[in-house]
Every structure is written in structure tokens, then in C-alpha cells.
Amino acid sequence: MDTPYTKRAADVLIWLLLLTMPYWIDAVGGYTQLGSRVLIMALAAMSLNFLLGYTGVLSFGHAAYFGLGVYGMGLTIKYLVPSTLAGMAVGVLAGAAAAAIIGLLIVHLRGIYFAMVTIAFGQVFYFIAYRWNNVTGGDDGLSGWSRQPIDFGFATVDILHNQRAFYYLVLLCFLISVAIMAALLRSPFGRTLLAIRENERRARFLGIPVDRHIWISWLISCIFVSLAGTLYALLNNFADPHDLRWDQSGDFVIMAVLGGMRSFWGPLIGAAIFVVLQDYVSSETQNWMSFIGLFFVLVVLFFPRGVLGIVRRKAAS
Amino acid sequence: MTQLILYNVFNGLIIGAFYALMALGLSLILNLSGVINFAHGGFLAVGAYLAFVLVPYIGFWGALVISPILTALFGLVIERILIRRLYGRDPLYGLLLTFGLAFMLEDGTRFIWGPQTLPFSVPDWLSSQLSSEFFFLTGYRLFMVLLVTAVVIGLFLLLGYTRIGVRIRAGTLDLETVSVLGVNVRMLRSLNFGLGIYLAGLAGVLAAGMLGLQPNIGTDLIMPSFVAIIIGGLGSLPGTLLGGLLIGVASGVTTVFFPSASEAVIYIMMGLVLLVRPRGLLGEEGRF
User: Fold this and answer.
1) Domain ranges for chain B
2) Residue numbers in A near B42 (CB within 8 A)
3) Residue A250 sits at the chain B interface (C-beta within 8 Å)
4) Among A146, A286, B44, B193, which is least packed by CB within 10 angstroms?
5) A118/A107 Cα distance (integer angstroms)
6) Of A111, A127, A287, the CB nearest to B91
7) Measured distance CA(B31)–CA(B287) in Å, rounded
8) pLDDT, tens only, A211-228
9) What is the pLDDT of residues B110-168, one digit of tens each?
10) Which domains does chain A have, with CATH numbers?
11) What ipTM describes this predicted complex?
């Protein structure tokens, strides 16, 4: 495994599957929207993993920045300008601004303390969305808006009614984000993040400004998570306050762990399994919370390395 | 106006007492075992519903005594089966497992007792008003404040002067040395976990008497408890107590002037504390 050759082959296979997904997903019992949902969640989980798996910093509050993307999109289209791209810009900027400021407060904390503070800070945005009724719609969420056609100058793409067109918009965003993250991880900056993950003290002795690197990694991670949030708002044509609650953060972490935190594509696989399972279970039973809860427990007890971690181990032995 | 403020300060103090009870349990477990127990709110709900089941047989007072003990025993079983496997591992796994457990406990109580709010009655003489001028001073609320005070004093006496308490405190500082000195660390962690869950169960019975029973009764209390721990300083139990009372009163006072910010204010306080004193109000320097 993991020779450059097999790695390249796996990359090609994954991109081929994603590119053709709208054409085979119905045949295997899914639907195009489910595919879009998998991609969006995968983008969020991979962004989280940039921080979690590659910098070794445990954030349990990424839903806040995801949710800022969701509400940035919804509020922009509803109140400011009916433009999908403007919504994306506002959502991502909102997420980035919040992450930059909160990052400054927490970046010198480590481990369990960092996790707790990120969880707690996440709730601020939840309460704002929940309580600011006349703007955000409160507990009912923000509805009464829908995704707008995108005008490229030479052609206009109707992403509202054409599910496949929307899927490819999501895929395009996914591709760009993932390519940027992969390039960053290959760069000297990315290698420095790995060094911090492996041995922070040694990295510090080498003169690496550890806090600043963690802050930048946190910011990058949050920016891509809020981009995923804007896409999620478009997918649902709705902004739900639960998108910024702590349970959502937990979902992102479990996707990353389930797929394999130490592999680049791991969170994609985790997201696919999680989203499909959630879709199936919540349509079959009222008690989906118990199932998801049990799922969390089982993953921790039996699959702590994730799917790709196990595959890799089997291949190595 | 004065009365309104007094009312909300008192109310905040009671809410703060809940936060403190929850947060002290969380803190105990976090300090000794390094596990953030997301399921703490779930255990609170278990305590509340057990009391609901017990009241027809042994009355309110019986339930107040027995239910937290049963909850603690349930906690010990869970610790034995699940939590024990988390010790010494990356805190990530503890978060995820207890997160799943919280879902299961909440859904479990909903499955057994239904999603609707169930009434939970306290003895008549407790629910009477004590003064017509200070209408908010019901006997039950005063009783709660007194009981929580007594429990907290009891907890600090236990930790300060008994053998087990000294071992818990020593283990918080250096578990390895405590183990080398011949203390059964497994047993110590179990007992400590049970003690934390006992406090959650007690908070559950008290909360049921004030708010009635709902499956998500504990979920709303868990986040403020985290904030209480952070404000007070990780690793410091007096800090946790102080943090709980502070945020309770702060959100009570905010209710008077700007009700819709009453939840957000505690997170703003947390931000301020992290800005000017990152280790928390009573936290030790350099521990985290």
C-alpha cells in the first residue's frame, strides 16, 4: 500500500467515482441530493481533519463555523442580494472572521482544554441564531429563500431545479478546497504542522512559532468548514439552528475518526458511511438518536483507527 | 425594580447551584481520569426519572436519598463497561464515546417515559410561599439552596479530610506516584466516577422538582457546566464552584435588562476570562 503508484490509482478512482456519481447513485438506491450531502459533509470533515489529523489539535466546535456559513448564505440571499456567489462570500467571510478572533483567544490552549473551550464557544452562535427571532427565524430556522441561478456571463446555470447541476457546483467547490488543502499539506508549512503534531516541544526548540502555526491551521480549517456550511444551506434552501449546535460538531469528528484521521481521504469515506446510515436509520425508526449514539460508542471501541487505518494496517502486515 | 433584580439574582443563584453541582461532578471525573463526560446531563436525567418512579413508593424524601445512589450505581456499571476503556487514551475518544452515550441516555429516557413533560410534585409545605413581598422565595427554592450548600460542604470535607478524598486529590496531581504508593488506582477512579455521577443524580432530582421532567432536562445544563469549569479554572474544584455561581447570577441579572442575551452572556464572560486570565479564576499556572 501507499506506494506512489497505488496512491495515484486510489486518487484517480475516487475522482472518477465522484465525477460520475449522479449517473450511478440512483441505481444503487440513493438519489442525487444524497450525493451532494455526502460531498458537503465530506468537505466539512476533511477541513476539520486538516486541524485534527494533520495538526493534532482537537476541535469539538467546528459546527459554529459551519453554521456561520449556513446563516451567512441564508441571510444574504433573503435580505441582501439574491445571489448564490455573494452568499458564499459572506458566509465564508463570517466564518473566517469569527474563527480569526476566537482563534486568538484559544490558540495557546492544548488538548482537552482546547476541546472544551471550542465546544463552549460554539454555543454562542447557536444562542444568537436561536434567540434573534426576527432576523434568524429562531428555533424554526430561516426559510423563505432558495438558491439562485449562477450567472457565468456566457451562460446561466439553474442549480435550483437541476439537481445534477447543483451536485457539480458542490463538486467544483469540493475539488478546489481539497486541492488547496492537499497542496498546503505538501508544502513546507504543512510539513511543519506535522512536526507540531508529532512533537510540539521539539518543534518549539527548533524555533517554530507553534502558536502562530496552529492559529493559521485553525483558520484554514474553519474557512473551508464555513464554505461547506454555505453549500449545506443551498442544499436545504433552509438554515437550521441545529446546524450550529454541538451535536453537529460531534458528527464531523466522528466522520473523520470513522474514515481514518491519519489519511487524507479518510473523512470522505467516514462522511459517506455516516450520511448514508443517518439517511437510512432516520427514515426507518423514531429512535435514530439511540442508533447514532450506539454507533459512536462502537466506533470508539472497535474502529478507533477508522476504515482506512485498518485497511492500511492489513496491507502493511 | 429592586425586587425584580433581587428576584433574578436569587433565581440566578439557584440556576448557578445547579451548574455548580453538575460542574463539580464533571470536574472530579475530568481531573482524575482525563475524560470529559458529555453524558453527565444524561445521568442527570436518569436521576430525575428514577426519582419520578420512586416517589409513589417511598415519597419525595426517600427518592431524594435513594435516586442519586441508584444513579451512581448505574454510573459505576457504565464506568466498568465503557468509560474504563478510555483511561490513558487520546481525549478525543472519551469525548466521542460519552457523546454517543449522552444520545443514548436521552433517547432511552424518551423511549421509556415519552417526550412530554411529566409533573414531579414536591411536598406541599415545601412549595409554599414564605413571604408575600418576596414572592419568589418559595420553600422549595430555599431548601434547594440550603441542600446544595450542605452537599458542597460535605464534598469538600470528604475531599479534605478522609483517606479516599486525600487520595483523589493526590491522584489529580500525580496519579503515577499514587499508584506506586500502593493505592488501587482503578478502584479510586471508579469511586471518583461514582461520586461525580451521584452529584449529577442529585441535581437531577432537584431539577425535576423545579422544572418538571423532560428527556432533555440535562442537555441544557451541560454546556453552562463546561463554561463554569473553564471560568473557574481547570483542575480547581473551588474554582468550579465559584464559576457555576458566577455564571448563574450573571445570566440572572442579564435577564432583567436584556433577556434574549441571558444565555450568550456566560460565553462572553468565558471569552473575557480567557483573554485576561487564560488559566481561569482559580486555576493553577501552567497546568494546561
Assistant:
1) 18-220
2) none
3) yes
4) A286
5) 10
6) A111
7) 11
8) 999 999 999 999 999 999
9) 888 888 888 887 777 666 666 666 666 677 888 888 898 999 999 999 988 998 888 88
10) 4-316 (1.10.3470)
11) 0.84
